[in-house]
Amino acid sequence: MVSPEVTAIIAGASAVAGGSLVAASNYVINRVQAADARKAELRRALIDLGDVVSRIDHRLRVEPEPGTTGRAINEAMSTHAPQFDHAIGLLRRRLLDPHLDDLTAAMSRALSTAMVLAPPNLLPALSQLTEAMDGADRRDEQWWARWNAARTNYFLRCREAVGHQVPVPSAVEEQRAEQEAMAP
């Protein structure tokens, strides 16, 4: 027969081992849930920024571009009459583009959130996107090529950031993409 001390030791060891097993499993479960929550938050931020980028892209593509005469007039007015040019710009924004402030605020909020949550390998794509947006007021073929390349790179890096594998394009696909990027 087993002595009461041995029974108590076995019971105590079983309790400690069982408690350790439960604690370890809870730790693993909490880590997995926290990682899933971070990934969901990142996914939401990247989707929000992608939505704003798509809205900006649409707006840029439907907005008529001034011809050489229009550009010359705009440059002359901004050089010789900056106050008048500024006043016309404000009037245009208030009358023709009242939603532009909301779009700008949404872009700023989405970009800030994405930059805080993004993994380090996504930051160059975000930087490339914001740099391409800087020249939007003077759109030419080279700008469109940079913009299209930056958008495509951003969306591919986003897919990688949320765990989707991005296939490596073949030489033919890269050439076709370059040709498409050149056309506005």
Plain-language structure description:
- It is a single chain.
- The chain is mainly α and 184 residues long.
- Helix content is 82%, strand content 0%.
- It is built from seven helices and no strands.
- It has helices spanning 4-62, 68-80, 82-96, 100-117, 123-134, 141-161, 171-182.
- The model has no long low-confidence stretch (mean pLDDT 78).
Strand content: under 5%
Tally of helical runs: 7
Order of helices and strands: HHHHHHH
User: What structural category do the secondary elements indicate?
Assistant: mainly alpha
Measured as a percent range, the helix fraction is: over 70%
Give the terminus-to-terminus CA distance: 90 Å
Low-confidence runs (pLDDT<50, min 5 residues)?
none
> How would a textbook summarize the main sheet?
none
CA-based shape:
elongated
Radius of gyration: 28 Å
What's the short version?
82% of the residues lie in helices and 0% in strands. It is built from seven helices and no strands.
SSE diagram, text form:
Layout: H1 4-62, H2 68-80, H3 82-96, H4 100-117, H5 123-134, H6 141-161, H7 171-182
Question: Keyphrases for this structure?
Answer:
184 residues, 7 helices
